[in-house]
Amino acid sequence: MGKVGGGSGGGGYPTRLGALLARTGILLLCARGACGGGGSCCPPPSPGSAQRWTPARAGTPPLEPQEKPGPAAVPGAQRRSGAPAKPSRESAAPMPFLRRPVFTVAPGDRALSLERGPGGNSGVGGLRSIRRRRSEVEQEKEDNGEGRRPRGPLGDGGQREPGKATRFRLEELRLTSTTFALTGDSAHNQAMVHWSGHNSSVILILTKLYDYNLGSITESSLWRSTDYGTTYEKLNDKVGLKTILSYLYVCPTNKRKIMLLTDPEIESSLLISSDEGATYQKYRLNFYIQSLLFHPKQEDWILAYSQDQKLYSSAEFGRRWQLLQEGVVPNRFYWSVMRSNREPDLVHLEARTMDGHSQYLTCRMQNCTEGNRNKPFPGYIDPDSLIVQDDYVFVQLTSGGRPHYYVSYRRNAFAQMKLPKYALPKDMHVISTDENQVFAAVQEWNQNDTYNLYISDTRGVYFTLALENVQSNRGPEGNIMIDLYEVAGIKGMFLANKKIDNQVKTFITYNKGRDWRLLQAPDTDLRGDPIHCLLPYCSLHLHLKVSDNPYTSGNIASRDTAPSIIVASGNIGSELSDNDISMFVSSDAGNTWRQIFEEEHSVLYLDQGGVLVAMKHTSLPIRHLWLSFDEGRSWSKYSFTSIPLFVDGVLGEPGEETLIMTVFGHFSHRSEWQLVKVDYKSIFDRRCAEEDYRPWQLHSQGEACIMGAKRIYKKRKSEKKCMQGKYAGAMASEPCVCTEADFDCDYGYERHSNGQCLPAFWFNPSSLSKDCSLGQSYLNSTGYRKVVSNNCTDGVREQYTAKPQQCPGKAPRGLRIVTSDGKLTAEQGHNVTLMVQLEEGDLQRTLIQVDFGDGIAVSYVNLSSTEDGIKHVYQNVGIFRVTVQVDNSLGSDSAVLYLHVTCPLEHVHLSLPFVTTKNKEVNATAVLWPSQVGTLTYVWWHGNNTEPLITLEGSKSFKFTSEGMNTITVQVSAGSAILQDTKTIAVYEEFQSLRLSFSPNLDDYNPDIPEWRRDISRVIKRALVEATGVSSQHILVAVLPGLPTAAELFVLPYQDATGENKRSSEDLEQISELMIHKLNQNSIHFELKPGIRVLVHAAHLTAAPLVDLTPSHSGSAMLMLLSVVFVGLAVFVIYKFKRKIPGLNVYAQMQNEKEQELISPVSHSENRPNVTQAELRSPGQFIDEKLDPQPIGE
Length: 1194
Prior knowledge:
Strand order of the largest sheet: 2-28-27-26-25-24
Number of helices: 9
Distance between the termini: 55 Å
Number of strands: 74
Structural class: mainly beta
Shape: extended
Strand content: 35-45%
Radius of gyration: 42 Å
Largest sheet: 6 strands, mixed
Helix content: under 10%
């Protein structure tokens, strides 16, 4: 969703540059190509997320350079508005640098930025591919008064009748000007200029040398003028000769207060001046400032955002700082400034939690401790989505794959913004919150490069369609540009470019989008020849987008102090085109238009629009400009410098009269900055008197009632050449009688061809009464609502205004129960919030009963008590049937929700035997930790099979038909988490096995963890190989879990790589007998550590001593005893080694011991496999890497 432009603002907040500069008076200059290496001249990168709020009001991306964010700042949708934005976020950061030298004409422009660098000279424009070109020789002749005149004047230099053609006076006149060079700064490629204005003669200029190779500023100079720019003084010695300055800030409410920021790579300091930059005090910082946000009313209150995402506050204009909050999202912090002016020290911010979620927080600037922070919106919000604008707060929350937008009006509880039911927005940009109304651009599910314009009620909740398929473009930094322009000085007047059948056409409205029409093309061209253009097939189309560089103004301009004058570039035809662009002017608020130039020019308003200054877009040096004193009907040529100048930028004097202009440029690429001060006061010989004005009535095609009122302005007579001075506003205004044209369709209603507003197919008009109770009243819509800010009275107002009506008694209907985040899962031991939604019913007289399905139930006496949700904690996992029933005297309704309660799955262990025989089923079991996690899905992969087996049970039987090493993998899906484990099993036709025991001292050093068992298994195997001489390929040893320590010895057949020399069963018996013999002789031992010797025994060979040496027994008895022992031993050996499938009892015991292992407090991550299948090619290799025994199932 798009950022709201203007308003309470936050650090580096993108706003309309013209409005911003009107308050700060800062011009920024950059050498051409200065963004090639990054740095200050480069606008911040676009982080990119279409579903985030993006700025729509201003037409500029964020104003401060910043690091590439993750889910952070988003340069977004931009409206081309001529109206200056309200003072607030505009001053949040130092002025931006432009990447191209374009002359800026945005309303109230007091600052801009340009670039100068290798590869060419700067100039006013000359950068657009659509611009016509002429030879430099021809251009030079023209600038010297030779050859043909600029395209547009009459060929014979004569004048035609008024209204038939634009008149041009070719006689060259001279403007009063002075030139000053910033000597010694010829290498500097960036500059920032501040002009206090408002009867102040002080101008400050900060120039810098940005090294693209180093990516940093290496030099800086500070200049100050006290005579309106006639002369300048260098102040490097006052700020420190070795100090390198990076940015210049100006307090928006007290222009005498200046703040300079040093380059943080050298030092982090602030230099503060309270006397318009005459003297400075230096203060060191313990953090690095990335952006600043000045309070729009309190001159000493500042918020500072650091490079490590911390927010600081100062109540002493930067002299002392206090940490407010860590983990603040870039550009998402705001002062709380409402029209009611309450809580001026409240700070709104979006902060990230430790787990990466975003929260909306508020706190006082001097007391932002954990206990004093509030969370106005319950739960988390989408990252980078908080917007605070005037009386409105916006957040976004995505659930079920769809974004949902919420608004708080005057800091009351949040309500979901209501668009038409099937708008299904993909993206939303809040364009404006002026006049207690929200203007938004919405990209619906079936749109790609267009947006629909919607306008809201006062609370910002219910939206109705204003215009469909408005053209949008993506700016050079990835920001969305909406082709919508609000005309300054006339309330409710907008221009928009709408796409119709793949053609873009310009439309105009005078009543906030209630009615739109095409623009009537001029009757004649520049030369007075008739133009044949018949509506609706042909009309005038205007470019409403900003220039190629988003930091410069656009190619359309209007002013609050000149409400009838609009200057724009465009073309005449069936659609908007980038070819054959001309300049047009309207002096009657868009009703009629005149062509003034056949090439693009930038136009600056002087003397409240009494003088228009036009400067041609060109990359060549110029010394002339054109002036008009009659709203563009005629133009005179003036020279402002004797030597042609590459123009980098123009700055008009801040204030109401604006009669001094400074042109910034250079004579050549290597020359110093040249500052040309142009004083227009010498043009006038007197101030205007009352008789110099005439009345002019605002109208729309003859209709005088605009937004419910008739407004009459006074204009200077075109033949009078006097200085106007202060703007007086409208001369007179009177309300009109209300007609149907003053009303728009209400929410849920659509305008049909007969002009009537009827309910949409998806809308039930009676649903508006669902939020009231029997005995109360509600406003029953007539299908119409008065256009916000419309001042009409009487007439049909009573007929179309919503009527109070008694709330009807209704039975409950349309009951739903959902979780607050829209999910069907909850976590064990954590709060889950359930929301009860009722489509119809008496809310105050309805009994609600909720059964959570775990033996707990609650009741509520009315639905309003559940507005914040019903919280519950489930102590067990499982699927719970949550039921809710509502009852009132007229009926009842019920709803069911099946809620899956889970706990996080931490570990999966696949339990599987090490060895098995062919064609024998083996049970594989997935053992989980914790054992109860809720509903699970098991995916089994066997060997090289490409198709998995999917089960809901954690056990699966497998049968192996061939010898060798086989791999089994299990994946366990628990909610959004998937864990897996892989085990390898050896398959043979036959093998021998024997249980081993150890001397008791081994138990003292057994930590009972898998790593220790694997290491001891390798040690035992090595001891067996050394004692018996048997190849390690025949031996597999697995130490079993638990105490006392035991192990399983496997004697395996081995077949070499040629497939020959495979051991027979007799060979395995011989090896087994050799093993037993060595074990009985205590020949198998190993040294655990110095002095600790461990013996390995064959377990359970006999239950009695082999020899009894007590003297009380006779010889025959002893012989009989020995015979019994040897017979028992023979039986044991035969039983143990002659069977084909040995050790079932052993495996059963292993299963019990494995279960003991799984409840061990030792970390279970140690059971994860550390080898690949390629490493398990033989039993010998297997024992080295995989000795942890596994149970085979229940």
